[in-house]
Every structure is written in C-alpha cells, then in structure tokens.
C-alpha cells in the first residue's frame, strides 16, 4: 500500500507535498514523511502515525526547497516507527516506495557486506543504498537507476530524489501504480490521479515496468528494457477539493447516509425506469448468451457483493458462477479460455490481488468486466468493459456505499444476463426492476431504524465475540456484518450460513454471545427462525433484523428486534446492508475506536 508523491516546483514544495499526502492517506496512515533539497542538500522530516503528526513537525521545523518527495505508509516490513518511515536516505539518494521488494534480504546482505549501515528494517532502504553505491562508482542518477531496477523482485512504485539535482525526479513502477503530472514549469509524480489532483489534471499513467526521468521542462519514459517509449497524456476528472464530512461526525456516517441518493444514481445508470428493463451499456462484451460459467473475483466487502450476486446470476439467469477471493484465485491456476468471462469487483480499482487475478484471466483469453468505483483506476483501465458504481468518493476505510452500489450494478447484470439467455421473461424482468427501483426509498426508510440500532452498541461493546447468521443472499450479508464489526470495533465476529450453525459453531453459543440474525420474512424465513430457536435454547442473545411480519412470527427468542420495511427478495440484501453497517458503526463510536481509519487497515490494498 502506501502513497507516494514527488514535486519539482517553482517555490517551496513541502506544503504541496503534505497537501497531496492528505489525499493519499487512504492508502495507509502508519507514518508519513517528506524529503526536499535545501540548497542542493537532502533534508527530511518524518513522523509516526497520522499525517497530522508530520504537519505539526513541519510547522515547528519547516523544510525549504523546491524539489521534494513524500510518503504516507502502511507498514509491511518493520514496525510503524520513525526509523522505518519513508523517505529513506542513503548518501546522495532519497526514495519513497509503495509495494514490496521481495528479494530485500538478499539486497540487505549485499549492501551490508559493502559497508553500508542500515537504519531501518524496511525492504526499500537497501535499494537506496544500491543506487548510492552505483553513484559512488561514477554512474549518473539515470544510469544508477537503470542498473538497479532490474535487480528488484516484487512490486513497486518508486520516486527518487538526488542530492545536488534540483531539477530531477526519477520514478519507476512495477505492480504498483504511478503517474506523472504535467504542470506549467512544474512536474509531479504521484501514486494516482487523486495525489496529483491539487496540482494538475494532465496526467500520464506509467505502464507496467516503465520508469521515468522527470525535469521541470519535460519527461522521458522508458520501458522495462530501457527503450524510450511514448505514453499518452490524459485529462483527469478527479476533483481537487478535499472531501468533507458535512454535518456528520465521521465519513463513514456520511457515506452510510448517502446511500439512498447514490443508489438512485447507480440504479438509474443501469436500469431503464420507463421500460423497466436492465440496460447495461457494454454488457454484450460479457457474452452472457452462450456463457457456460461466470468467474467472479474480488476481495473483502467487494467479494461479498459478488457472493450475493452468485445467487442472482444462478437464479435469474441460470448462469453458474464460480467466485473466489482474489488472493486465492490468483494462485489457483484455474483453467480459463477465450470462452470465459471474468468479472472483477473493486471500489478502489487498485487492489493488488484483484488486479493480479484480472491479469491472469486476461492472459488466458477471458473477456474482462470490472465493477469499479474509481473510474481512472488501474483495474478500470485494464478491463475490457467497465461498469462504474456511481457511489462518489468513499473515504471511510470500511466500505459501505460502494458495497450497496456494487450490488445495484450486479443486480442489473444478472437481470440482463437472464434476458439475454432467454430464461427471464419480460414480465418477470419488469416486476424485478420495479422492485429494484424502490431501493432508494427503502434505504431511506431503513435508516430510520438508526436510533434503535444505537441502543445495541452499549451491550455489544461488552462482548468479546459475536455471530451473524443469514441464509441465501443474507448469508453474504452475515459475513459482511461480521467483517464490519471486526474491522471497526475490533470485536471478534464470525458470519455463518444459518443452516451451518449446528455443524460446529453452535458450540460457541452461551449467554455471552450476541447473535445477529438477518432474516426478512421470505420463503426460507421459517428455516432461519428454527436456527434462531436453536441459538435461543442455548442462551444466545439474539438480535433479529427483519420486517414486521418476521418480527410477529419470530416467537419470543430475540432480545432485540430491528424492524425494516417490507421488501422483495432481490432488494433485501441491498437494503439490509444498512442496519448491518450501522451496528458496526455505532458500536465503534461507542467504544471510541477510530471509525474512519481503523487500526492496521488502509483503504486501498496495493500489496498482496
Ligand atoms: C471492508 C473493506 C475491504 C475492501 C477490500 C477490497 O470494509 O472495505 O474489505 O472491500 O479491501 O477493496 P476494493 O473494493 O477497493 O478492491
């Protein structure tokens, strides 16, 4: 993960670098640092923890210089301490890095044997030393970089600054994204368009294996074989304004409450409200009509959106779905051919495992579709067909509105697939679309249960463990509820298919175990209620999330009930996601954890 930035500016660059890092903090917030050239000499400031610590440091001890690099870190190698914070210096070289250098141990041994003294436990400090050793042997900066880059195994986006070279930045990318920003007499490097958004909208994305030599007047780009290459300049539409929380205490609260609106935007992009049909532009490239199976790959919450859609594709389109988490899929060597279609789901569009899986499928000839929120992301750029979620920027680390918007797009794709495969009648499609169109209004009504959910936070905060149960499309939602609770409140939680409970996990049930049962009154409601009774009989403290009819028919086993409006099956997993998110949110707020930036996490997971 980590975010990197480099600036060749007209005046002092440290404040510009900090401004860019604020936008990159979604990539990690374990430490941050800036290095500049003050009259040709490398100087730096680094601070542990959030960026505001670095800002305070820079207020007390500003950095001069019109050339600099900066970094916000998600720790991989070495604890989040100042010595491990980037930029790393070695002699005349400073470097910032996003990614993992896999052969760093070998490189460490080599440079220690050469007499270097290492300050950090990181995988990148040896690289700075290797470049410095090459400079000591009389190489120019670009010769030194050309010599060292082929020796690095793993994934990286790098930005180098050199002592005495006030008009030079060198960047390189392999596996992790890096872009060049073009200014007027100024030039920039950054992890993505968001990092560059305060400076310019003229962006060149480096391609895999590229490296670049940047000065204030121009940029040269080389491919992995050191051949000069041209890469197109694009206009970025990423807004430069920093997102604010509005009247909300946290981004997450704002994003939960934005869902009725952004679901409306996303649904209206993919459904025709007049004809009540799914109308997904570009879906023909997914070849639904003759497809034997659809492969879906994603991570975390995005994977759970995919898991919900498996039920939809199989039920409404009779299309078998093979779904896996990307970190497993990428190494499974799944047989694929040009007859296959692979669908990837990612909010950020930068998740390393999802991207690697996409590349695997592409290399095997499959048609590639991607559901992404960030339109200019790497996954969006590498997919054959992009279906954007219109969720707007999601800043809270825990995904909320991106998840429900992913579901909205997936529902459209499933219905379109059903129609194209001739298994979904026009009438049934109209009924289902009519139900889906109601989602924004149902989501708004669902938010009115917030006060009752807030009351659950205090008792839940005392628990060490929690269980979430659901069946069919509510099973992935149970997994999502447990994931959200874990990441925000640090309470251990598990999601289970309700019917699976008696095959093991029921042994965990006692009077200290909160059990959330997600059970709208649907065709299998009674089955879930039976599982609920089994929990109640063993003293489990049940919170039932259901509708009025479900509440009336639940017996007296639940200690609390959250009542949502009535809704159809296809709509339920989208709308029921909201109370599930609110439970985790309010518990975290009650416990005083860092809701928008939970410990150890980052919004964009660009390392595997
Ligand atoms: C959980 C969460 C993560 C992400 C996962 C994938 O709340 O946000 O599990 O869903 O890291 O990220 P994207 O969607 O950016 O690929």
From TrEMBL:
Gene3D superfamilies: Glucose-6-phosphate isomerase like protein, domain 1, Glutamine Phosphoribosylpyrophosphate, subunit 1, domain 1. The keyword Metal-binding does not apply. Keywords: Aminotransferase, Cytoplasm, Glutamine amidotransferase, Repeat, Transferase. Its EC number is 2.6.1.16. Its main location: cytoplasm. PROSITE patterns: GATASE_TYPE_2 (PS51278), SIS (PS51464). Residues 2-217 form the Glutamine amidotransferase type-2 domain. GO terms for biological process: amino sugar biosynthetic process; carbohydrate metabolic process; fructose 6-phosphate metabolic process; protein N-linked glycosylation; UDP-N-acetylglucosamine metabolic process. The active site is at residues 2, 603. One of its GO terms (molecular function) is glutamine-fructose-6-phosphate transaminase (isomerizing) activity. GO terms for cellular component: cytosol. Residues 282-423, 456-598 form the SIS domain. It catalyses: D-fructose 6-phosphate + L-glutamine = D-glucosamine 6-phosphate + L-glutamate. InterPro entries: GATase_2_dom (IPR017932), GFAT (IPR005855), GFAT_N (IPR047084), GlmS/AgaS_SIS (IPR035466), GlmS/FrlB_SIS (IPR035490), Ntn_hydrolases_N (IPR029055), SIS_dom (IPR001347), SIS_dom_sf (IPR046348). It is found in: Cytoplasm. Catalyzes the first step in hexosamine metabolism, converting fructose-6P into glucosamine-6P using glutamine as a nitrogen source. Homodimer. HAMAP family: GlmS (MF_00164). PANTHER family: GLUCOSAMINE--FRUCTOSE-6-PHOSPHATE AMINOTRANSFERASE, ISOMERIZING (PTHR10937), GLUTAMINE--FRUCTOSE-6-PHOSPHATE TRANSAMINASE (ISOMERIZING) (PTHR10937:SF0). NCBIfam families: glmS (TIGR01135), PRK00331.1 (NF001484). This is Glutamine--fructose-6-phosphate aminotransferase [isomerizing]. The gene is glmS.
């Amino acid at each position: 993960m980590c975010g990197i930035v480099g600036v060749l500016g007209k005046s002092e660059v440290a404040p510009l670098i900090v401004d860019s890092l604020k936008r990159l903090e979604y990539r990690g917030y374990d430490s941050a640092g800036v290095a500049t050239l003050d009259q040709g000499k490398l100087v730096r400031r680094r601070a542990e923890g959030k960026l505001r610590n670095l800002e305070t440091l820079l207020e007390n001890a500003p950095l001069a210089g019109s050339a600099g690099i900066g970094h916000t870190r998600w720790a991989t190698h070495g604890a989040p301490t100042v010595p491990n914070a980037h930029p790393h210096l070695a002699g005349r070289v400073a470097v910032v890095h996003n990614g993992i250098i896999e052969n760093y141990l070998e490189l460490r041994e080599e440079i220690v044997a050469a007499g270097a003294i290492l300050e950090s436990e990181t995988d990148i400090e040896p690289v700075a030393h290797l470049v410095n050793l090459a400079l000591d042997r009389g190489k120019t900066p670009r010769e030194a970089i050309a010599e060292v880059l082929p020796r690095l195994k793993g994934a990286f986006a790098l930005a180098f600054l050199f002592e005495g070279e006030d008009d030079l930045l060198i960047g390189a990318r392999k596996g992790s994204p890096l872009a060049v920003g073009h200014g007027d007499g100024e030039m920039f490097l950054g992890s993505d368009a968001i990092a560059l958004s305060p400076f310019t909208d003229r962006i060149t994305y480096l391609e895999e294996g590229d490296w670049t030599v940047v000065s204030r007047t121009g940029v040269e780009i080389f491919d992995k074989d050191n051949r000069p290459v041209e890469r197109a300049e694009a206009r970025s539409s990423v807004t430069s304004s920093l997102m604010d929380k509005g009247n909300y205490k946290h981004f997450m609260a704002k994003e939960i409450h934005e869902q009725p609106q952004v679901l409306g935007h996303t649904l209206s992009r993919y459904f025709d409200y007049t004809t009540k049909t799914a109308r997904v532009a570009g879906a023909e490239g997914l070849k639904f009509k003759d497809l034997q199976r659809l492969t879906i790959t994603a991570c975390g919450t995005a994977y759970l959106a995919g898991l919900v859609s498996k039920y939809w594709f199989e039920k409404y389109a009779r299309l078998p779905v093979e779904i896996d988490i990307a970190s497993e899929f990428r190494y499974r060597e799944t047989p694929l051919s040009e007859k296959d279609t692979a669908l990837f789901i990612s909010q950020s569009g930068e998740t390393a495992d999802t991207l690697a899986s996409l590349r695997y499928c592409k290399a095997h000839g499959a048609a590639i579709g991607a559901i992404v929120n960030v339109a200019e992301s790497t996954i969006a750029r590498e997919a054959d067909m992009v279906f954007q979620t219109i969720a707007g920027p999601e800043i809270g680390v825990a995904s909320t509105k991106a998840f429900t918007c992913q579901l909205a797009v997936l529902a459209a794709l499933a219905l379109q697939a059903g129609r194209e495969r001739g298994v979904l009648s026009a009438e049934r499609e109209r009924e289902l679309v009519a139900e889906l169109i109601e989602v924004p209004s149902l989501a708004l009504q669902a938010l009115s249960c917030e006060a009752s959910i807030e009351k659950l936070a205090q008792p839940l905060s005392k628990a060490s463990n929690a269980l979430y149960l659901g069946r069919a499309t509510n099973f992935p939602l149970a997994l999502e509820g447990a994931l959200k609770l874990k990441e925000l409140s640090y309470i251990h939680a598990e999601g289970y298919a309700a019917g699976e409970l008696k095959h093991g996990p029921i042994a965990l049930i006692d009077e200290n175990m909160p059990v959330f049962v997600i059970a709208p009154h649907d065709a299998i409601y009674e089955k879930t209620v039976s599982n609920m009774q089994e929990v109640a009989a063993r003293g489990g403290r049940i919170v039932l999330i259901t509708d009025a009819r479900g509440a009336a028919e639940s017996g007296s086993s639940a200690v609390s009930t959250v009542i949502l409006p009535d809704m159809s099956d296809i709509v339920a997993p989208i709308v029921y996601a909201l109370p599930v998110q609110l439970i985790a949110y309010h518990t975290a707020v009650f416990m005083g954890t860092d809701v928008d930036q939970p410990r150890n996490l980052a919004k964009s997971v660009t390392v595997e």
